[in-house]
Every structure is written in C-alpha cells, then in structure tokens.
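Students often ask why we bother predicting the structure of a whole assembly rather than each chain alone. The short answer is interfaces. A chain on its own may look different once its partners are present, and contacts between molecules only exist in the joint model. In this exercise we take two input lines together and write out one structure for the complete complex. Read the inputs first and try to guess which parts will touch.
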Amino acid sequence: METNGNHNGSEAVRTVSLVRHYRLGRNVISAVDGVSVAAERGEFIALLGASGSGKSTLLNLIAGLDRPDSGAIVVEGQDLATMTPEQLAQYRRHTAGMVFQSFNLVPTMTLNENVELPMRFAEVRRKERRSRVQEALERVGLADRAQHRPSELSGGEQQRAAIARALVNQPKLLLADEPTGNLDSKTGTEILDLITELNHSLEMTVIMVTHERALADRYAHRMIFLGDGKVQGETTNKQKGAAR
Amino acid sequence: MRAYDLVELAGRNLREAVLRNSLTTLGIGVGVASLVAMLSLGVGLQKLATRQLGRSGLFDSIVVTSRQLRGPRLGQTSAPSGPPKALDDAARKNFERISQVAEVYSNFGAVGEFRLDGAKQEEGHFTVAGGLPESARGSEAFDDVQGHFFSSGDAHEVILYAEFARTLLGLPDKDPLADPKLTSEEASRLLGKDLIFRYAEREAPGTSAPPPTPSAQNTDAEGDDPAGFNVVRREQRLKIVGIVSTEPYRGMRNARTSVFLPIAYAESLNAMQPGDLSNVMRPGQGRTYTALVVRVEKSKYVQQVEDEIKKQGFNTFSILDASKGITKFFRFLDLFLGIFGSLALAVASLGIVNTLVMAILERRREIGIMKALGASDGDVKKIFFVEAGSMGALGGALGVALGWMMGRVINLGANLYLERQSIHSENFWYVPMWLAVGGIAFAVVVSLFAGLYPASRAARLDPVQALRHE
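Now the answer. The structure tokens for the assembled complex follow.
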C-alpha cells in the first residue's frame, strides 16, 4: 500500500478474507466473498462497484452494523468479528461515524436533538453536549438551523446535519454510504468538499461507497473496485496524493 | 445510557404518538380503576362489618354460665372436678379483677307488663326487659337515638325499642326490613313520659320489706335462702328517656328485648328471671346469676380472658371463632373481587403489547438509526421498557383516581337505593393508602411484563435491515 496525502502510514482498517453471505430462499448469495482490503490513517478511500457488488455490505461490516461469516475486520488493532454486541455498540459510538444516502435523520427531532443523539448513547455530560452540538453544527455551516426539523431543510443541508451527527463523538473513522446519491451534482460536490475538509483537518480516515467514478476520481486517494463480492482491482490517485 | 436520557427519549416517543399512547394508558387506567373499585368495595365492606360487629358488643364479650346449670356437656372430656362453682357475686368480683376486663354485668332479662302512665290496665303489653351497661352508650344503636342515654347506672329510666314504642302508641306495624324509626312528632309523644312496669319479684320467704340489693348478698348468705323464694307482683314507675331503632347489644341476648333499663337498676329490682327456677331445685345456695357478660377492653384479649375464666371453673361462650371466620370470608371476597378486577387490567396489558409492537413497526428505521449511532441492544430495550412503565404508572394513577370515583358513585347509588328502602345509609367503600399505591405499582409491573416481548423484539432488530426499511 502506498502512502498518500496526509495519511501517516499506520493502519486504520484492515479486513482479512472477509466473507458474508445471505440466504435468499434456497440460494446463498455471497455479498462479500473473501475481501482483504486495508486503509491507512487519514486515507480517503472510495469503494466503487455496480449495485449488488457488495460495497455497501463491506461498509456495514466495517461499521460494525453487520457481522461477517468468516474473516477478520481489524480497526485500530481490534477485531470486530470477535466483539460482543455491547463492544460493537461501543465501537459504533466512539470509533466509527456513519453517513447514509438517505441521511437517516430522525424526522421528529430538531437538528440539535439529532446531533445530540449519539452523545446520549455515549453518556456524554449534558453541559459538554451543548457545546459539542454547537461546534459540530458550526463546522458544517448549520449553526443557525439548530432548531429546525429535517423536513424544513434541503437535501444538502440534511446531509450536512448527518455529517455533524457523525462527527460529534469524535470518531477516527467516517463511513459514508453513497453520501451524494440523493443530491444534485452541485450539492454533492459541496458535501464531498466538506468531507475532504474533515479528512484533512480532523485526520479522519474516510471510507466512502459510491458508484460515481468521477466524484471518486476527484476526491479519493485510492479507489477499490468491487464486483460479485470480490475485489476486482484498485487505483491509487497519485495526482491527488501529490497535490496534498 | 443515563436515566434522564432514557426518560427523555421515552417521553418524546410517547408524545409522538400521543393519541394511541393516551388510549392505551386510558385502557390501563380503566383496568386499574375496576381493580381499585372492586377492592375498595371489599375493603369497605370488611371495615363496615368489623365496625358494626365491634360496636354490637359481640366480639369483645364473653358469656359466662355456671357448669351446674347444665351438667357435663356432650363431648366435654374432662368433667369439672369437685362441686361446681356458683355464678354468684364472689365469682363476679373475681372476673372484674382479671386484667383487660372492662366490665362485668348480668345478662338480665325479665318478662314484664308495660303501659303508659294514664293508660288503662288492660292496655298493658307483655314484653322482655333487658339491662344495658354504661358501655352500650357507644353502641351503634345510639347513633340516631331519639332522646338520650340513661343519666346514671341506677336511674329509674327506660329506653324503648322503636317497634315497641309503636305498639305503645298503637301505631301500625312496619315492614320488618324497614327502619322502624319514629317520626319526631311520634317520639315527642313518648319522651319524658312515665311508663308503668309490672313484674314478678323474687322475695326471700318471710320478708315483706324491699329486697336487698344483689351486692349485699354473697355466698355467706346461704342460710338466708334455704329453700327458694316467694314471687311477688311489683310495680315501678319509669321515665322514658330514649327510643332506639336498632337493638343495642342484640347478639348476646336470647330473646328480642323491647325495653331497656340501666343494668345496675335492673339488677336491684330482683326481678324473676327464667333461670331462677332451676336454682330452686338446688337448695342451699344464695342468689346466683343465670349468666354474666364479661366485656374485655379489646377483642384480641377475648381468648386470654376466656381461658382464665374457664380455669376458674365456669362455662364460657364467645364469638371469637365467628370473627375469625368473618376475616377469612373477607380474604376470599377480596381475592375474588381482585381477580375480577384484574381481568380488565389483563386486557389492558394486551393493549400495551399491541401499542408497543405497532411502535416497533413504525419506528423500525429510527431503531436502526439509533443502533448505527451506537445504541446497544440493552439501550433500545430500556427505552421500550421505560415507555411501557410510564404508560403503566400514568394509567395506574389515572386508574386509582377513576376507581376512587367509581367507588364513590357505586356507594352513592347504593345508598340512594337503601334510603328509598328506608334503611339508613352506610359507607361500604374505602380506598386505603396501600390500595392506591399498590394499584399504581401493580399497573407498572403488569405494563413492564407486557413490555417484555416488544422490548426484546425491538432490541433484536437487525440495524442493516431496519435502515433499509422505508
């Protein structure tokens, strides 16, 4: 693996011969079939592939939302495959932040409340929560919309709120599943600019699932191509890396 | 997850589906209300029964009779050794000395003829006269007495039972179930008037002077009364001071008593009583009592005092066993009422299950989001538990209030009915503290139990599936 951009050479994520299959009726579908990939700290990786290629399943496995049938997922030195459900929940609280295509904000909560939610599970003190919510919303440029509900915001604003929520527990890893999929190209670019900025300033490792090659080309340090649950190839964006 | 976060999140969720959750809570409320209403009636009835029975003088009284009156009873294993003891004044003094004994009085009952002063001789009525001790003042019969209680223990006064008062006035008889109470106008025609009492007096042979009082007699007087007594007709003039519509201390007497005299005065009359004849058959004894009533300070001392009196060589009778039976009966009644009341709560608990299962379906995605943000299975479970528990607590509180009102309404309705039947009203409904607190606690427990399945189902939800859910 090459060292690019601001990533410092030490490993953030490594999957080893990861396998995950689903049973659909009588058929067994291998969504992820022996995938071994790695990401260094501070790296921005794009997972590309057609739908059904297994990229989202791989991301869910790394997020600790799903469990592999075999193989290992080592994040910051710990294997998710051997964790108890409670440890996995801890991991999702503190180590991995998630951003989704459909934003997944709780519609009945204001932005404030949405961003505060992960800190409730992490048992952050109330006083500290307020300042951290404020800080996260300022970072994504939504400080003035704190009391609004998601339905009162544009798609881009909702996704920025979701990013603020993913940041608020200060994770080392940002996992984004098609973050621009529901946005027009201009807004999508703005979102990826924001993610890149966070990747830089907070030195977060970013793994993004997308099927838009152009966006991946433009923002990711490295692109991993998946097909039929297997790694089909990868490209390092040297120009991108050199630019930083 | 911290407790206040749990409560806040659960509270938010409850407010989001306010109509559905309110209806579910109302369901629990109705369930608890029926339970509380049922049990409050059970408890109230028991309280009423205990109070009435307590004031009837039944449960703190022991009737003492001499063993010589009847001889050994069937099934009485150990026949008393030595000559049977006489139930006389010495024995009476001994009883009075036993600790916890409030008073001892004779079970006085004499037949006599009564007529209002000024009425003709043939207008007299035969009936039973009884004696009342001072403690009868607190009896329920005097709750609505017309007139007042005796001014002293030996006053020449009389209290009438309302039915007999009607007879004296020549009024028609009332339905036996109805309250025989006189109108105030009718009562005023009797109160303060004189009543002539003709009775048979036991007179020691050879004396024509007024008889000595019982207290002057004791076992030493055996020689004065060697072979019985004469029976002489006497007449007394008594002032009517009160009219009662229920018979005070009814339970301890054999016959229905219509006229009451102060006990000390009644005893001093030396009136002929039914048991006296058997005494004639046993010469060589002084004045004895047919029966004495020993009243203890509290009903819990009855057993102890009864044992003590038995040890002294007398037969005793008390209604202690009956009171134990009544307590047992009310336990069963409460149990059955409780079971019926709980049925509604059981139905309501199904409502909780339904509401929460619906909430899981609705909030599937939200549960997925929470899990993705780091909520553990336990956190999700707890949120649902707090929701179920809050509905239970709210419903319970509502139910206690509702049950209290239902009880009041039932009580009111029943009393209206009773009043129409001319039976005076009673409070047979009571919500004690334990019932109010227990009702709420029970609702919470039932709700948490109902929340078990939905909560664990929500906790088991696969976040990947849940997030895919639209």
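Check your guess against this: The interface with chain A takes residues 1-2, 5, 9, 12, 16, 365-366, 368-379, 463-464, 467 of chain B (CB under 8 Å).
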